[in-house]
Each structure stands twice: as structure tokens, then as C-alpha cells.
Design a protein that fits this description.
Structural class: alpha/beta
Helix content: 25-40%
CATH topology of the largest domain: Dihydrodipicolinate Reductase, domain 2
CATH class of the largest domain: Alpha Beta
Number of strands: 14
Shape: elongated
Strand order of the largest sheet: 8-9-10-7-11-12-13-14
Largest sheet: 8 strands, mixed
Order of helices and strands: EHEHEHEHEHEHEHEEEEEEHHEHH
Amino acid sequence: MSAFRWGIFGTGTISAKFVAGLVATAQTEVSFVASRSAARAQRFAARMRVPRAIEGYANAAQEGGVDAIYIATPPALHVEHALTCIHAGIPVLVEKPLATTIDDATRLIDGARDNAVFAMEAMWTRFLPAVRLLRDYLDGHCVGEVRMLAASLGVAKTVRAENTSFNPVLGGGAISQLGVYPLSLGQYLFGPATLMHALGNVGETQVDEDVAFHLRYQQNVLATCYVSIRSWAPSEFRVLGTTGEVCLRGPLIRPSGITLSRRSVEQLDERDYGWRMRLRQRGWLNWLAQRLGRTALKTSATTIGRFYAGNGYHYQAEEVRRCLQQGSLESSCMPLSDSLEIVQLSEQIRHQLRTV
């Protein structure tokens, strides 16, 4: 079997992680890296051992010679660069978010479908073994009836206009950079969502820096999420149900398993008002429980590991290869309709922040 050949658009950190991650998959090679700057392309190629450096994205698409191109340029440029490849007949894996506006996302998707060229958003977390495990457990009603989802992700960054995260023209902001993770995972597990409320802080560079938002999924599953590019926040994803909770083990963006905590449904009866209840309310017993750290509710927690190989970035690349080998124009795990809905939700959140 011949090696699957990748081309890379963009020379940022995410491109380097993707190239490094491909080591974990067999029969795969990187043929070139392209950038607007010849110097940046050459520097990236030298450091990441890529054989060719190409100046200009249109030139790279015209040269071709690859099976797919990974696009990791700033979010606002995704549609332009993806369509350049699509019109050249080259399949694309587009870094998240797929686009920054619903109009751009629609143009990209229509272009891929009209030209019968494969396209997929690079939401790498969806393809990790732990996330697949979480979905399987939820399908098995591991926490009873799911009622809520809680997620947070925050990284305190220094405000610099030249940094994509703080540049509104390039597609910066907390929702674009981080919010796409809980939005995409929630959709993968529970389907389409409706935005109920969003609030946040818009910074001096006019991007959303801190955002809290509430969603409602099918079967009345509620979600509360917080993302920030100005403050640290736990990297967590928790699903809460009538018989317990299940959460991703490790960072939300790259989990290595799940932790399942089960509790029985509380049943109140006359015995709850008897001597046991009165004993539990005694001051001396509460004094002792606080010092022993026994004030939390009792739960039965089980951790199930599902470790990822390498740095985890290769799973999405393997999905692209699998789809192309099968003749599929979209991924069933990350279909373009899902990406479109996420862009639409993101746009609604940003709009609500500026009208509250």
C-alpha cells in the first residue's frame, strides 16, 4: 500500500502538532508545507523534517501531488484556503472552527458538495478513544436519565493584537478558539442544541474573552459552559444524570478515559426522620466529619482508561484516509452539517454578547 500524502497550509503550533502526530499512523507522509512567507515555510520544513516548502497557498494547491491538505491558517481564512484546494480537486481537513461566520461555512460546504470533494472539520477530540467510550457508556444509560452537561475550559493569555486569539479580523475570541470544544462534544453526544442565554466580556481588541452560555438539547438536556482566553478554568466535561455522573478523565480537549460515579435515586420516607437523621445533624459528628474530609456525598467512582496513541492528532487523519478509501465525501463522525450547526451557534453566542 502506498503512503498517504499530506500537504500542510500554515506554519503555526497546531500545524507542528499535527505533523508530529502523524508519526503514530502507518503509511503516512507529509509532502509539503505552504505559507504566505517563504522564510516561514522553509523554517517549518527544516524543523519538522518536511521535504518541501512552498510560498503561497494557491501555488501549493496547483502543484498538488498530495492526497489531502490540512488547513491550519487563521479561522477567518479557512474558507478561502479550503475553496482553493477544493477547486483544485484536493480533499481538505480544515482546522476548527470550520469557519467564523455562517455565510463562510455555507460557502465552504456548498463548494465541497458541488465539486464532489471531501471536506471535514478537524475536531480531533471527537476521534479520541475516550470520547468514543463516553458515548458508548451514555448510550448504555450509565447515569440513568441524562439531565445536565457542565463544561469549562480557560487559558489565561496575554493580550496581544498580533495574536490570532485576540484578533477579530482573523477570527479570534474565546468561542472561536475554545468554545468549539464543548459545543462540538455536546452535539456529538446529544444532537442539535438551542441557545438559551449567553453573557461575557468583550475585550479591548473587540473579541469575546470570557463567555458563559446555556444550551438546551433534545430530551431537555441542559448545558452550562464557560470558556475564557483571559482566565484559567478547569478543563472539564461532565454529564449529570439521575443515577450519577460521568466525566472525561484528563483535559477536555485530550481525555484519556472516563470516570463514572454512581448514586441511587434518593427516596424519602419516614425512616429519614428517625434517629439516624438526628444523629447526622449532631454538632460533634459534623465537627469530626469536617476534619476527616467526610462531608461529601458518598459515591461509587470507577475510572476506565482509554489511552490515545502518540499525541492524539492522528486519529482525525486516519478518519480522512478511511473516508477517501471508501469513497465517502463526508465523515459520519464529523459531518459537515454538524460543523455548520456549531458555526451557527457560535455566531448566535457572539451576537448575544453584544446585545445584552
